[in-house]
Specification:
- This protein is mainly α and about 110 residues long.
- It is about 55% helix and about 0% strand.
- The termini are far apart.
Length: about 110
């Protein structure tokens, strides 16, 4: 296998770094720390939680589910959509209604600011 080959981006639509930051903020705002999350999820060490917070990896679906139950949010609330400029331009170019285009732009800007 060629080591120079670009790694496959399995989460092409998720901004890993912003998702990790959001997850950390949500957990800390709810009054939990890394050790509490480690214990709650029965993790043998805290490193996975730190990797989530730094956007290196995402929690498994099972862990996302348990975290959502703990915090009383939906699983997808932890995730931040990656802004795809080409997709945004395509959407805007194919809309006839200027107001709908403006609303799409505002929505994208709001997602960027998260």
């Amino acid at each position: 296998m060629n080591d120079n080959r670009k790694k496959l981006d399995i989460y092409a639509n998720i901004d890993m770094k912003k998702s990790g930051q959001k997850m950390k903020q949500m957990i800390i705002s709810a009054g939990y720390d890394v050790k509490a999350i480690q214990q709650y999820l029965h993790l043998s060490c805290p490193q996975p939680v730190y990797r989530w917070f730094h956007g290196k990896v995402l929690p498994t679906v099972d862990h996302l589910f348990m975290l959502s139950k703990l915090l009383g949010v939906h699983m997808e609330d932890f995730l931040v959509e990656k802004v795809d400029e080409k997709r945004f331009i395509f959407i805007c170019q194919n809309r006839d209604d200027r107001n709908r285009m403006l609303n799409a732009k505002i929505e994208m800007c709001n997602r960027i600011l998260l």
